[in-house]
Amino acid sequence: MVETFSFEFASTPDIVFGCGALAGLPSLIAEQGERVLLITGGSSLQKSGNLQRLIADLEDRVESIELENVSGEPSPKLVDELAEKHRFPAPTVIAAVGGGSVLDAGKAVSALIPCEDSVMAYLEGVGKGRQHSGKKVPFIAVPTTSGTGSEATKNAVLSRVGENGFKKSLRHDNFVPDLALIDPELVQSCPPDITAASGLDAISQLLGAYLSTEASPLTDSLALKALEMAGNSYYLTVAEGKNLRARADMAYAALISGIVLANAGLGIVHGAASPLGGYFDIPHGVVCGTLLPAAVEKNIELLREETREDRGARTESRQFLEKYARAGALLNQEAEPGRMDLEVQVEKYCDRLIDILYEWVEKLPISRLGEYGIREADLGKIAAETGCKNNPVSLSREQIEDILRARL
């Protein structure tokens, strides 16, 4: 029997990508409806004058504009309040302009306005288990950071932080934004610490999807090019924030990271991000960025052991190691190696991947977990709730604790 492969690929939003693309947003919004809910975050959009220009351009095209500001990662309470506030009369289009949290808030509000109950009825794992109909207000996503890829995914991540906290998704195939507008010029004012953390979040998603047990040739091809662009430009976006070419590369990498994670899933880094973000007030990008080197190192260590000790697992484990090696070459700005027939090549580039990731978290403003109040005594509880779905190697609770401990 001939071996082959099969896969499914989820829908993506309509995509408008390019420097200066923001200028076309008013007409794109007006095409979707006459009553606009505009959700923004922070103050960068206002300080740059882009918010005022956007509103002025919209006023000539639409019937009404409502404005909301979101700070921090969205909670179910916030989503419920915004949906209730804007349900009557409902907007005919929602546009969210901001970081991943702003986009998630907008995505969740667009999904909840047509409903009459709390978002807690639909949240995975902690809600009432109801299936959302998929009906929503048309939604446009405009990212101002290069990280989560929320502009291309079908889920909105909501958090309730505290002792009994959680970080869970509101998810439906229809929740993919109707339009994603990515303008790299919007990211130029992003501060170095947020740039560093969000960039590593995007890289963690590219690596997680590329090394996923559910990866396909299509997600691999997308992830590899995006990893190449991230290797060329990630460090530059932090060191030279106004470098527009670097910003464009990372904006593309973040967009692709959302597309591939939606189709291949993610591994241990995002599995740990869920309980960490529920119990502690720690930004998602910081969690993913700070854990990435230790997680990759542990995965590679265990895959190497499997190739030495279990000949039956050797072929699959070897394939994962080759993938890590290719990623290591690309993130180190080297040409992607061809088929790696020499063991020394695989060893070399796997080591180089580990080295570059540790170099980034040590040189760049990436906080450790301990800076957010996480202590040794917390690791067992976090590890017990960490998912390893789609991770290239199975991890024990103790091994997950080792990854967390490395970044205390």
Structure description:
With 408 residues, this protein is α/β, with parallel strands linked by helices. The protein folds into two domains: 174 residues, Rossmann fold; 214 residues, Dehydroquinate synthase-like, alpha domain (Up-down Bundle). Helix content is 50%, strand content 11%. Strand 6 and strand 7 form a beta hairpin. It is globular. The mean pLDDT is 93.
Describe the secondary-structure layout.
Elements: E1 14-17, H1 25-32, E2 35-41, H2 44-47, H3 50-59, E3 64-70, H4 76-85, E4 93-98, H5 100-112, E5 139-143, E6 155-160, E7 166-171, E8 179-182, H6 192-210, H7 217-239, H8 244-264, H9 268-279, H10 284-309, H11 311-331, H12 343-363, H13 379-384, H14 397-405
Parallel strand pairs: 1-8, 2-3, 2-4, 4-5, 5-8
Antiparallel strand pairs: 6-7
Helix pairs in contact: 1-3, 4-5, 6-7, 6-8, 6-10, 7-8, 7-11, 9-10, 10-11, 10-12, 10-14, 11-12
**SS-based class:** alpha/beta
The CATH topology assignment of the largest domain is Dehydroquinate synthase-like, alpha domain
> Reading side by side through the largest sheet, how are the strands ordered?
1-8-5-4-2-3
Total number of distinct structural domains? 2
Low-confidence stretches: none
Count up the helices: 14
Main sheet characteristics: 6 strands, parallel
The helix/strand series, from N terminus to C terminus, equals EHEHHEHEHEEEEHHHHHHHHH
